[in-house]
Every structure is written in structure tokens, then in C-alpha cells.
Amino acid sequence: MEIYVYGTGCGAGELTRETLEPTRIAAFVESQPTRETFLGRPVISISMLAERTVDLLIVTAKDAPAFPFSPEKVLYLKNHLALIDRNRSYDAARAALGDAFVERLQRQEVPVRAPLWDDGSLAAPGDWVRYKTLEAISRALCAVPGAMAELGVFRGEFAAAMNALLPERRLYLFDTFAGFDPAEAAPEGLAEAHENASAEAVLRRLPRADKAVIRAGLFPATAAGLENERFALVSLDADLEESTLAGLRWFVPRMEQGGYLLLHDWNHPGLPGVREALARYEAETGQHLAGVPLCDITGTLVIPF
Prior knowledge:
This protein is α/β, with parallel strands linked by helices. It has two domains: 3-107, Rossmann fold, CATH 3.40.50; 128-304, Vaccinia Virus protein VP39 (Rossmann fold, 3-Layer(aba) Sandwich), CATH 3.40.50.150. It has helices at residues 10-18, 46-49, 91-97, 99-107, 128-139, 157-165, 188-193, 199-205, 241-251, 273-285; strands spanning 3-6, 25-30, 37-38, 41-45, 56-59, 74-76, 147-151, 171-175, 212-216, 231-236, 255-263, 292-293, 301-304. Strand 1 (3-6), helix 1 (10-18) and strand 2 form a beta-alpha-beta unit.
């Protein structure tokens, strides 16, 4: 059976860790390939699929183009789909992945995609709940001073939304832009996915790049000189335990009253270190950070100050 996977990001890494061995994948697919291989398998363009026999195409990216195959041969794993996707045949997916996986997929809630902003100029790239929450929070920050920051920028999708919703705020972007700290072990698929990022590509994505300050390298060393900065909004998306703990230690004392820290992946079963980092921070400081869990794709915890 010829199985292809669209996307070479975190979704693809999670798929290969939990469900599908990379050796069973004929190739990974990108709209415009930026690498030759991913997890030891070739990366090809969509146009090259026309030359191949495709039994199943698994879409792991948040946004994807239309594919020239019958619907039953395309399986979407991100919950940003039109509801019609839940009403079609999953026979090809069952043959490749088994009944248990498909039944688990069908039980997932599928939010209806909608524009992030009313004028439709920008749309939430996949995670409707997370981005609509950001929109609501941004409106509540009018009277709250302070800068914004994201620790764990990756390709800059969420940073772009922060930048667009609060265009006059300074936005600090902390990331190595070259993958995780080698001293902190990350799952193979996750680690390789995060190697494919660059500060330049992130800046091109931002609508107000003039308000962004790139701090490339290992955190918290990259925060040197910002000790007196205060923050109204922080997205903490470091994925791993030690990096998340470092982010909490540095940002929490610098949060403005009325501000918000968004702890991404707090309820992600594949990244338990995020929740553990919060527990460790609370134990070492004696400070309980009460938050509101979101029902977004990977379980963000919204912590108000």
C-alpha cells in the first residue's frame, strides 16, 4: 500500500511517533519542498504525486490545498476541517491505519473554520479556538501596558496573529530558529520538524515586522538586557519541560497586572513536560498559577495576571 503524508511539521512527527512508522511512508509531500528528506523518507512536491499510485494521503498540516484524488483517499488529521469530512468513507484509512485509529479520529470534535478577523483579511491557520481566544484577549489589553513575547516561535504563525491584532506593541521573538537545545532530548519527529525554520521567514510572515525584535539562540541567555521589560501578553510554546520551566521563571515575575500568559501544549498528551514544568514552578515558588484550559488542538492554558 502506497501511503503519503502531506506536511513535515509537528503533526507529521506526532503521527510517526504514535501511529505510523516512517518506513511505511512512501514519501512526505510539501507544496513547495524545502528539504530533500524528512525522518529518512523523501520529500516530494504535490505535482509529483500525479506520477504515483496513491492509496492513502494523510494530511497533517493545518492548511492544505485541494488534492486530485477521490475524498476517501485523503485523511485529514487536524481539526480545522469542514464538517463534511466526518461524513465520508474512511475505508482507505482503515486499511492503512486500522479501525481503532479511525474510530478515535471520528470521535474528535471538529470546530467550524471561520475568519479570525471580521474583514477576512487574515484567517486563523487551523486552530480556531486558540486564535479566537487570542483575538478576545487582545481586545481586553487596551488599558494594560507592556510588550508582547513568544518563546518558541517555530514558523511564526501565532506570532503573526499577535503582531496583527496588537500592531503597535513591541513583540520579542525568542527561538533558536535551528531546532531544540541538544541538551534537552526531544522526540525525533518533533525535533526534525523544528529544524526547518528561520528568523527571516518569520519576519516575512509578520504584517508589522518593524515591531518585532528577534532574539535568536538559547533562552534565557537571549533575554539578557531585557530584565526591566514588562509584558502584557506572552505565548510560551517551548514544548519541552526544561525550556518551559525557564520561560515561566523568567516571564512570570515580569507580567503586568491584567496581562495574560498562554501556556501552549499544557494539555497535550504527547508533551507531558509542559504540565510538569508548571507543577515544578509552582512547587519552587509557592505561587499557584490558576488558569483556564482551552479546548484547542493541543490544550493551551490561559493564565491571567
